[in-house]
Amino acid sequence: MRAFADITEALSALAVEVPSWAYGNSGTRFKVFGSPGTPRTVEEKVADAATVHRFTGLAPSVALHIPWDLVDDFGALRRNAEDLGVRIGTINSNTFQDDDYKLGALTHTDPKIRQKAIDHHFECIDVMHATGSRDLKIWLAEGTNYPGQGDLRARQDRLHEGLSTIYDRLADDQRLVLEYKFFEPAFYHTDVPDWGTSYVQVAALGERAMVCLDTGHHAPGTNIEFIVAQLLRLGKLGSFDFNSRFYADDDLIVGAADPYQLYRILVEVVRGGGYGPGSDVALMLDQCHNIEKKIPGQIRSVLNVQEMLARALLLDREALAAAQEEGDVLLANEIFMDAFYTDVRADLAHWREERGLPGDPMRAYVGSGHQERIEDERVGGTQAGWG
Amino acid sequence: MRAFADITEALSALAVEVPSWAYGNSGTRFKVFGSPGTPRTVEEKVADAATVHRFTGLAPSVALHIPWDLVDDFGALRRNAEDLGVRIGTINSNTFQDDDYKLGALTHTDPKIRQKAIDHHFECIDVMHATGSRDLKIWLAEGTNYPGQGDLRARQDRLHEGLSTIYDRLADDQRLVLEYKFFEPAFYHTDVPDWGTSYVQVAALGERAMVCLDTGHHAPGTNIEFIVAQLLRLGKLGSFDFNSRFYADDDLIVGAADPYQLYRILVEVVRGGGYGPGSDVALMLDQCHNIEKKIPGQIRSVLNVQEMLARALLLDREALAAAQEEGDVLLANEIFMDAFYTDVRADLAHWREERGLPGDPMRAYVGSGHQERIEDERVGGTQAGWG
Amino acid sequence: MRAFADITEALSALAVEVPSWAYGNSGTRFKVFGSPGTPRTVEEKVADAATVHRFTGLAPSVALHIPWDLVDDFGALRRNAEDLGVRIGTINSNTFQDDDYKLGALTHTDPKIRQKAIDHHFECIDVMHATGSRDLKIWLAEGTNYPGQGDLRARQDRLHEGLSTIYDRLADDQRLVLEYKFFEPAFYHTDVPDWGTSYVQVAALGERAMVCLDTGHHAPGTNIEFIVAQLLRLGKLGSFDFNSRFYADDDLIVGAADPYQLYRILVEVVRGGGYGPGSDVALMLDQCHNIEKKIPGQIRSVLNVQEMLARALLLDREALAAAQEEGDVLLANEIFMDAFYTDVRADLAHWREERGLPGDPMRAYVGSGHQERIEDERVGGTQAGWG
Amino acid sequence: MRAFADITEALSALAVEVPSWAYGNSGTRFKVFGSPGTPRTVEEKVADAATVHRFTGLAPSVALHIPWDLVDDFGALRRNAEDLGVRIGTINSNTFQDDDYKLGALTHTDPKIRQKAIDHHFECIDVMHATGSRDLKIWLAEGTNYPGQGDLRARQDRLHEGLSTIYDRLADDQRLVLEYKFFEPAFYHTDVPDWGTSYVQVAALGERAMVCLDTGHHAPGTNIEFIVAQLLRLGKLGSFDFNSRFYADDDLIVGAADPYQLYRILVEVVRGGGYGPGSDVALMLDQCHNIEKKIPGQIRSVLNVQEMLARALLLDREALAAAQEEGDVLLANEIFMDAFYTDVRADLAHWREERGLPGDPMRAYVGSGHQERIEDERVGGTQAGWG
């Protein structure tokens, strides 16, 4: 295995984008529990993101969701974020909460509703210009609940038409990333259900259209690291939405359900050039903290990515390649697991302290009194959520 | 195959309980779409249930959910229902929407919260006395989202304690039915995740505690008809919550996703004595009509149960048993599918007309103007939903 | 719904290719049960395929598997088949039963083993020339059992190289169809696990390289008809391997596990131009009859495809399109299910009799004495199987 | 977290039973690859088991499978094993490889075949007397492939009858453990598919009938540690068959697919009293080494159990209970994962060396020349496998 000292430089490149909505309330269709200290405004969400970055040094940008994060002056929001030490990152569109979109948005049979969805994306691109964002991320909730409800094929063609129109509006330094999802909220078919569909749709658009891989959006048993390897091979992996799941799109803390899977994914990211200088792959979180505290939930999450990335970087690729070449199955697997089983936490604590960060950001946050402070201050108003 | 004439008497026994909440709005965590004509009150929900019964003759009772259906005077509600030609059926409790239940109800570590959940069930039993309901149905949303969050074993013991206390409060002609569910809203573990757990919990209570089988609450690939057969064999199948699913607990119209599975389930119901005189198994719907119209969605659902039950009754069990005895795999399967592939719709239309019902309840409803009427009348107020 | 009379001409175009190996013994890793009457030679397998065609008129060609079906003189085999009224169809390669392929074939790290696998495909192409076969079907069993065992990315590159070499060897009127499979026999990763991978690999080859969709090769819950629609849209659906499954790649009789799914698939086939004159999509079976009799198992299978295709053709697409356009979810679904619930069996029996075929091929086969005859005749020798 | 020094005594109690068949060849339905050095006799399998124990000190007993391990003189086999330092453990029956069992064994419609299956178990009990084995393990491959093929309910009743007869034959110090399995080799229904069925069947037998939990025999997404906790709570967990899986019953090396799941399982084992003095739970492996070397595959496996057990023992249960009581979700999860992320390998190496064992058994085995020796010696004869 490689020594920790050999990976410290590579580790320094890690930046994990956090989603503004992770700081607001979320839940299931059964209940959204509120929690003290939840932001009431976009500015408070950005402040929470900045807090995560202050304690970890890992989260220099925050993704916005339109219209949840609509403000009058995005230039001011951008300056506000920069004053707090973070940037505005990816802009996420929303075509699933307007009554018009009940049966579809970009794929709707009615051209007026399709145009409305396209116009919404134009508005998002306007926001990108104001915030300096590179990526427009499109997750489409569309699909059908019953066989026969829609024409699967025609919807795919309308999807292409809508995406083309949006893509053409982007500036030359902007990208479109198209997320896929196995199911939910549609329960019979989803218009972009798998990486293959996202790939063929973005491949038909052009070079700056890429696939977004959300780790919670696959069929049971799917080998996600294979998809990572394939998309990097095809030059079409645009970004990650990290989270974890036991069942469906549970949106749990990344690494919480299957840490070894996270390791395998990050090994392929590094293997395929998806990390570090020269890579444009955006690493983001997309999570819900339904029952746990939100800021420390996000701190835990970026630390999980960092710890697992350290293990992936420690993997002795030369020894592994030799064992693979030899066909020594047990040795190759042992080398692979050796890095995974290495406890990197003490080294990382030391590394953080050298950089002026708290060695244990979780304990530092708890000890800082910040949580109590926001719980005291953020009284009244309407807590942010998915709406 | 048996002739349709031979099953008409058996068919007459069919009664499918409808859930009051099917007439209110429902949706996903992403969006609850409203729809014109949605009830604003419990009385309007009961009226909608009565409408379904009027058009089909299949839905003589309506299940209530407490507190969604709390009224001041349940006696009046009962009389109101009876005036409309339906009864109040199962009472469903709710321990998942109060802030106190964020980390559990009957399984919570805090005895005060457990007592609160028990008291809620006592209140439900009071309602049952007023409405004349036989069954208290308990679906517990409890569980944990992260490994380590709770003590799986201790929670199971507390669950037993709580259920015992509730069971002891029931009158001699009342039953407790305990529903199980694979996951959601909890994402790591659920306290009653499978039929085995529900069975051992109710077996520890007594004779009037039974299992409720919701057809959407199983792991992918689960053979549900096997569970039906097993629970009937054990004398512990209390009731069904019918719906259908492609992925998770989609709560789609029963029979919409896999009609052949519904057939297989009903074959085992009939085989095991779960249908007809002498059976106490309650057949209920538990569905959401997120995007389709609600009253016709329910009409479609009870018709689907009726059509599939007719096929199950048509199955030539003597011929099947002979083929099974012979070990003739292809012939046994052919006999089994013969009834399934039989188109019973014309015979059923005739059967309905003979009983003074519309031959095609779906077309009759559309032609009746009822939907337009309630859309006109039900303006203002707050549409009913899950809260 | 359309009338049966309106679809008889379209129905006449149906041809389902049967696999030679369906007539041999098959089983699980636990046991291969033998059965009386099983063929001992390739010629006897072809004779069984011809028997299926004689009773149904639906199975005019038989697929071969090399080396299971190696004969000295393929020209003679071809003439023999034609004398019996059937053609030799798709040639299937095999790179999973030689000891050299334990850790891979086209993806192996050792170039000598890769060349051996390529040479095997060259041999298959030679067979195609002798048999007049159009399609070379490649299912690759390769993959790894343990994380780290192989380099996912490098294997993909080697796969491309191998496929290119094979593709270049094909004549202008020959095609390469690449099958994908979720898992088995590899248990950690499979080199062609999903339609996306098959698509990007064949798209990199050229116009005559296509995807083969085996209905049993998907993750739980996968919407297969969506993939059918997408591949037809992309012009890359080459062929089907029909069978059915409850769990993994069960290889049961097509339509036996989920008849409604088969209907939905065939609706998309027809919708997307994958059936009838002008379509090059090959409809094949790929099944195992582990416990049921093999010839009637195949008769049942081609009948299942025919019956379900009839339903798909009966679908009233104009009415469906209107309901979809209206956004009438319930009506669209009802129109869709109307054709499914139609019992086409009597009409099909009549249709067969008009064409000089037995109205009920299953009964006709049982009554013909053919099964007893082959059980008497085929004594001694080694029964055919997977080797 | 607890210190390693605090768990060394508890660690010493670990004994993992190995299966004789792990040393023979195994594979998939597509191919069984042979490998040099594979045992030809039962004695050689026992010798291989003893080798695993010699290098690890963890595997003091070996399970046999009848008839694969039938010998003329089981007393001699027992003495032979004891001379090599191991015991004969569990006796496994086999009712899936005789042609008579094609459609069932204990559940067959034919009473003669049922009696034959019962007699086979009597024979196994005779073996147990000769070998001094405590446990008779029954895994039933029975089920059906097609709906309608068998009567689910009647089969369950016949199963009870057969098991009762077998159970009654056991001596007072012998146990019956009944394994359940989701699917395979039956593809529509399995007669003992889940823990609930195994539980109700063994509960109907008596105190010495217990459930066997094979970690690879569940539906996708099943929370296995919950079942462990439940069965321990009910006093009915008899034994484990450890292995790991990504998809179906892959039978991979335990801990190879999801190490965190193995940790969670072992945490519940310890929590529920399933480990250590006073516990009768048998920890066994049931694995296949299809492509990797078999003896080191088994060494790796018992080491994986040991390493993960060490982590489970290190868990600070007092701190965890306090965090659970507090409802501190993040802290509880962090405490839970803290032990998992601890690298116990150096401490365990030291612990082994103190006990006269090699610190790194994998390297020690490779360096010992043993593998080369058996590859040289075991030439000729028929390699052992599943038959």
Automatic annotation (TrEMBL), chains A, B, C, D:
It holds the Pfam family RhaA. InterPro entries: L-rhamnose_isomerase, Rhamnose_iso-rel, Rhamnose_isomerase, Xyl_isomerase-like_sf. It comes from the Bacteria. It is an enzyme of class 5 (isomerase). Signal peptide: none annotated. The keyword Cytoplasm applies. SUPFAM superfamilies: Xylose isomerase-like (SSF51658). The keyword Nucleus does not apply. GO terms for molecular function: L-rhamnose isomerase activity; manganese ion binding. Keywords: Cytoplasm, Isomerase, Manganese, Metal-binding, Rhamnose metabolism. One of its GO terms (biological process) is rhamnose catabolic process. Its EC number is 5.3.1.14. NCBIfam families: RhaI_grampos (TIGR02635). This is L-rhamnose isomerase.
